[in-house]
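Quick start: read one record
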Amino acid sequence: MNIIFRLFCISLWLAIGSSHAANTNDFNVKVIADDLGVPWGMAFLNKDQILITEREGDLQRLDIRTGDIASIDGLPWEILILGQGGLLDVAIDHSSGWIYFSYSKNVKGQGATTLARAKLDGTTLIDWQDLLVSQSRTSTSYHFAGRLAFDRQGHIFMSIGDRGIRANGQDLSNHAGTIIRLNLDGTVPEDNPFVDNDDALPEIWSYGHRNPQGLFFNSTTQQFWSNEHGPRGGDEINLILPGQNYGWPVISYGKEYNSPAAVGEGTHKAGMQQPVKVYTPSIAPSSLIQYQGKAFSLWRGKLLAGALKLQHLNLVTLDQNQQVVKEDRLLTSLAERLRNVVEGPDGFIYIATDSGKILMLTPNNESQ
């Protein structure tokens, strides 16, 4: 892998929309790494170093000051690199030093979305532990999901797609089409919503999901956000509540791929949650954050997500009732599939692209 890359700053006057947060003078973009694989997840080890997972089954450590990239050893050999599956997300519990991973585990030739953890010793992972090998295996190569989020109260969430089997979204006897919640040691919290339901798996937090690619738990507001891919149209942003049904595939705002027919019974049904926002046509959202920092003061509280199909940074403004009042589409001129968006300790925005780049967005202080 070529670890020498460009360290140059390109001022980009990129925006769609009329809000000040999308003003053409609001931010600069710097390419801080390139020539990676498909960098699926990112997590800051400290203020200067990022761990980057590559879907092809590699783990890298990037020093954002120098641009040096070091390969990390110790990943399991059972990672199944197939279609949308592989090494997926990474999240770090800095209080304990545990690094959490999601990946598609090879179980008899099929991929099971798996939650694991390990610790880092130099450039080697040690004490690897699979915490949950989910009951989600199918013969398909897509809809693994795998996004991770902490609630900072001793729990970790992981999204699991329907694995290409629509009926999984309403089937609580497997993990596909759900968001799960575990204690940090992999045990099941006693207050999970289905713990006492013999017909449901106890790890499940919410269900009726198609392929949730973004998770973000706001520890200040205690609100849990997710976005997910619809079929042809009907991508969603949702506020996730324990035990709730988000409708897939019974209700959807999307269409069938091979006909103009709507998916499911309609867009609403009693007992099924409505999304906060729907995207039609689909933007194919990737990861999701709610900006908390100070660097982009005008973005605080806004949702940011990458878009794969429509190739932009999606900036969503909410009102005090968490209703969407505005959307801006940034970075459209890059023509890049934006796979992962994270906020750094410095409050800057870091973005991974499917072409193998890591971008850093910094504010134009005059506009902030």
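The CA atoms of residues 250 and 265 lie 6 Å apart.
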